[in-house]
Amino acid sequence: MIIVHHLENSRSQRVLWLLEELEMPYDIRRYERDRKTMLAPTELKRVHPLGKAPVIEDDGRVLAETGAIVEYLVEKAGGKLGPPPNREAVLRYRHFLHYAEGSMMPPLFGLLIINRLGLLGKPAKATVQAMLDTHLDWLESELAARAWFAGDEFTAADIMMSFPLEASRARGGLGPSRPHLMDWLERIHARPAYGAALGKGGPYAYA
């Protein structure tokens, strides 16, 4: 049985959602953030030295990093929700699988820190917001061309993109001015597996 070490309001919500989409059985070990620092509890370091979530345990393996976990689970499921059978779609799938964390999350994390700094962070806010807006404008144009990030079918790339776009709506200025992204968020939130993952994972601030 796969064990998911799940931290509230974190990237690990995507792993629960993917497992529901893949119809794979799993158990959850749920952790709450420190109410003062909002960091993960030290207990997670007993699972993996980095003390981050998500982490999964399966067949004696301990795996960290969302993208690596997603690739592992898609492979374990025989390729379900993996890259479509089209070279261009494969390249888009691979791109967005890595883009979600490598390109989207740095400016979002920057905004999170800036907002916590209050007046001290104000000088940097416009610059970092402009960086994020460039990403959001490009993503809006991508979804104007097709229904899902890799192509015409829902894939694990969409699951990977969920957290940065949910976070963008919560604190990055994503709203009605980018209707294709907002429609995409509505469609992923309407998926039964997404709802099932919320039911099992507990409260999630970005849904």
Automatic annotation (TrEMBL):
Segments forming domain GST N-terminal: 1-81
Presence of the UniProt keyword Transferase in the record: yes
Domain GST C-terminal: 86-207
GO cellular component, one term: cytoplasm
EC number: 2.5.1.18
Pfam families to which the protein is assigned, alphabetical: GST_C_2, GST_N_2
Protein name: glutathione transferase
Organism: Allosphingosinicella humi
Upper classification of the organism: Bacteria, Pseudomonadati, Pseudomonadota, Alphaproteobacteria, Sphingomonadales
